[in-house]
Every structure is written in C-alpha cells, then in structure tokens.
Write a structure and sequence with these properties.
- Helix content is 35%, strand content 15%.
- With 252 residues, it is of the alpha/beta class.
- The chain has a 7-stranded mixed β-sheet with strand order 1-3-2-4-5-8-9, with helices on both faces.
- α1 packs across α8, α3 crosses α4 and α5 runs antiparallel to α6.
- The relative contact order is 0.17.
C-alpha cells in the first residue's frame, strides 16, 4: 500500500476505517508511530457500532527520511481533514489520540466546540523548555536525528512498529505546537488516561490538561502500562473505558 504521494507504507502501518454510525470516532496515533498502535482501539470503537477513521499522519509509517520534512502543520492539517470527512457523515464525533495524537485531539477540541468528547491517552501538551536548546544545538551541529522515542511498552509480547530514530526538526515543530492548543476553549467532556510509568511523556502533562480544559474531566490511571498503553498490559482497560465514554457522550 502507498501513501497519496506514492510512498511505500510499512506493512501493518496502514490507515484504517470502518462504517457504522450514526456517530463516529476519529482515532489519531503518536509521534513517529502509526495506526498499528491504535488499531485495537479503533476496532473496539467499530465493534461498538461507531464509524471510525484511523488516518496515517504525513511522514509516518514509511521512513524517517519522509518524516524529517514534515511539521505540525502537516499533521494537524491531516487531522482536520479527517475530522471534517467524518463529521460530514456522522451526527456526533468523538476524537481519541495517543501522545501526539492526543495533542491533535485537544487541538481539534479547541477549534470545534461541536465535538462530543475527547479521549486523551498519555497526551503531550507541553515539551520541557530545557529539552529544546540541546535539540537546536544538535541540529546546528549537523545532527538531524536521535535514537527512537517509540516502543515504550511494558508487555514483552507487544511491540510498537514505530521508527527506530527520531527526526529533530519535527520534534521542535511538535514542541512549538503547544502554543496552538487552546485548552481553555475545550468545553466538551474529556477522558484522560495516564500511565504513571511513562518514559516518553511526563505524566504531569495529564494534570496540566485536566486543570486547563473547561469541560468535565474523567481520569483513568494505567498502572501496568508504559507510554504506548493502547498495546500494553492495560490495553483492554483503555478500550473498555474509551468505548463506554464515547457511548455516554454521544447518547448511545
């Protein structure tokens, strides 16, 4: 399978969708990840009768070189387009995301008050400032990537098909996107799921998100999982809680 611009997609990393309705769920993967880490959750929503869209974000699921030229504008543009397509055929839409997918979810939530609810799993809302100067120094020194941030999973039988390296320019772009997250404008219900043992995103991001949004907040702690909780030991808990939440906020 190829992307619209002709890039070969790594097997197992393809976008996925399902019919259903009248309500829908947009499911968004994380930075350097792909739909593989979210497929089980997407299928759980579909199994509950929701129409589902699980897009492959630009630069992901192909090669690190492809991702190195992408930015937040590319990923958010793709998320906006996927949301618009799903909203056009559904009465109500829930948006669910992991990590950067959660960032995109809250970005959409701040722009679209009609969204029925947000499901945020180990979401990034702020990249530490002390990380940015070293990243810029590496770029200035000719280093454009570092070892992977993906694959933070406690269950040894599960593996995330994320890239084996992290491109630095896109990382800086993600860090700068925090200013675009209008958290106080989010009035819909928000389900925040957090892994205390997250080695990629500081769990404190969840606290900041919970404190900043204007809508009602529900919280779930994922005690047994690391960052990629959607495929980790708590994956069934993530599915159960997310589906139940989506049913509640859509009236279904």
């Amino acid at each position: 399978m190829q992307t619209p611009d002709g890039k070969e997609i790594i097997p197992g990393c393809e976008p996925w969708s399902a019919g259903g309705g009248p309500h829908g769920v947009l499911v968004l993967h994380g930075f350097t990840g792909n739909p593989q880490s979210m497929r089980g959750l997407a299928e759980a929503f579909a199994g509950a009768g929701f129409a589902v869209e699980l897009p492959l974000l630009p630069g992901h699921g192909t090669s690190v070189d492809d991702m190195a030229t992408t930015t937040w504008a590319d990923w958010s543009g793709a998320a906006e387009a996927a949301y618009a397509g799903l909203a056009a055929r559904c009465d109500k839409v829930v948006v669910a995301g992991l990590s950067m997918g959660g960032s995109l979810s809250v970005w959409l939530g701040g722009r679209h008050p009609e969204i029925a609810g947000l499901v945020c799993v180990n979401t990034v809302v702020e990249v530490p400032a002390e990380l940015l100067a070293p990243v810029q120094e590496m770029l200035d020194g000719g280093v454009d990537r570092i070892p992977a941030v993906g694959g933070d999973v406690a269950d040894p039988d599960q593996r995330e098909k994320a890239y084996d390296a992290t491109p630095l320019r896109p990382l800086l772009s993600l860090a700068g996107a925090g200013a675009e997250l209008a958290l106080a404008a989010i009035t819909c219900p928000v389900l925040i799921m957090t892994s205390p043992q997250d080695h990629v995103v500081d769990p404190g991001n969840s606290d900041k998100l919970a404190a900043a949004v204007a809508g009602p907040v529900e919280r779930v702690t994922l005690e047994r999982s690391y960052h990629v909780a959607t495929i980790d030991y708590d994956r069934d808990l993530v599915k159960e809680q997310a589906v139940a939440f989506a049913r509640r906020v859509t009236g279904g």
